[in-house]
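Posting for a labmate who doesn't have an account.
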Amino acid sequence: MLDILRRGAQSWGIKILFGIIIAVFVLAFGMNRMQNDKGSVVATVNDIPIIFSQYQDRLQRSLEMARSQNPNLTAEILAQMGFKKQILEQMITEELMLQEAAVLGLTVSKEELAKEIHLIPAFQNEGKVFDAATYQKVLQANNLTPGRFESDFMRTLIMDKLVTYLGLPGRLNEDQARDFHTYSRSTAVVSYVMYPWARFQDQVKATDDKIAAYYEAHKAEYAVPALARIAYLELNPATLSDESSVTGSEAETYYAEHKDDFRIEEQVNARHILVRVDDGAPEADVAKAMAKIKAAQAELKAGKSFHDVAAKYTEDPSGNENGGTLGWFGRGRMVKAFEDAAFALEKSSVSEPVRTQFGIHLIKVEDKKPAGYQAYADVEAAIKTLLAQDRAAETLQDRLDQALELILAGEGLQSIAKSIGLKREVQESEFFTRERAPRELPELAPENVATLFELPLNATTQSPLTLKDGYLLATKVEQTAATTKTLNEVKEAISAAVVREEALKIAKIQADNDLATLRGGGTGGAKATETAPFGRQGSIPGLGANPGLVAAAFKAEPGTWLPESYAFTDGYVLARAVRTTPPAVDEWEQEKEIWLNALNQRAEQQVVQAAVSEMRAKADIRITNPAVIEN
């Protein structure tokens, strides 16, 4: 949050954001009433008070953070979330943790505090070294004093120490973590016989009675919701800007003062031919791949086009169609061996074979661009747009007020657009429902969609609805009532559904009968198909998802039939366990640290949550001023 606000302190997006935050905070939280109780205590935790001013400060900062992450948050949503109560609960939990840390003697020295502050990137200069001036500037930009920040940060470090201390008993040793890894990464293979419903569809007839019964039982599926359509204006810096108002001199000055924004990195435009071979593959496989890449190289040296040779030899799927084109890329975009070779080549030259983790490559550099700056002529239009939008942002509120006055005077949207100098004409949406925003306005918050939907026909919004970068004004131009499709409209689809449903029942009966024979030692006539390996999560290759089959496959002895038939989209399946395979030893060695860290973090969280719950159960917690958390 600090970085976002600091980087964009002068941008129109941040100005709009601050305006929304202030407005929502005042309307939703009754700032005046709260300010009258500055000296009050909101709650006590084992007789330690949480002061109103502390709560108010945390509430406002949390609101700003929430709104920066989701600009569509409204007072209604915040109330439904119990936002104010959540903040107080956080503060109570923190106080409990600090009290427990004090009992355990956990502290943070001034030296520890200074060290941790010096490691925060926001307070470092370009050389990655802590800079006192930057520290002061960042804090000042966020209305913080060093004393306040350091006090809060010390509390955070103490709680971190407590979390580490409490989480120690829950930490897993390497053997336990490996058991989790083995369980999660093991794979199974089954062979299966499919009983597709289509095989039995000729045995079923969709009679009128069955179709009518199905229609009545599934009538809700054929409901058509009420629909609405709107005409609307978007008021934002882009729709209100006028690029013609920006002079060439102004654009040139901006370019000169912000030239680093137009820096371009060194780039190459390349193609490649790839022959795949894994890292650590047997020498025979590597030799085979190298022979193939050498054959491609020979054809290139004989004068054939890279495009044609790539289409013939490359094992990069997209390369067969586009001649191995990779387009323009800068440093850091490709794996190092590939990048080093590409940037070392001259224009129009082809590399020797290059080995990477993906296989062996031949690389051709079509063109190169040195590092430098975009030419002014190439960015002039973009600069003028930027400056024009900045100017428009300054007048956005005034023009919104003007538009609202015109709405009250009975003016239509087209007239309003012309009066306030809107660049974009009135737009019209497709039909939408109360629950789903218009396709043209996907960012609309649910309560704003409901507001539009509930407008009377031909009525216009009397107050603006917020969008990410501005505001929306709208008129409902069409509406339709909720209805249900008639039986005749859906009869054909229902007939197909009845046939499928009845045929699936027959398929299951046949599968269950055959399973009884197979599990009794008999043989089936159908040939089984073996799957590719699959894990405990996800779908079975060639079949789809069925958690019951997956679970049974990992429990069953190889060669045994699983205990029931399993439903899939196309029918029912009988399956026989073939094998289960644990992960390779080297896979554990490669991933060991990742698994240990992830599992211990989860275990630590669970232990700490249990400890905090116990603290709360034993504590004397009193909400002394419940009015401040009422929505």
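Reply:
Got it, the structure tokens are right above this. The first strand starts at residue 41 and ends at 45.
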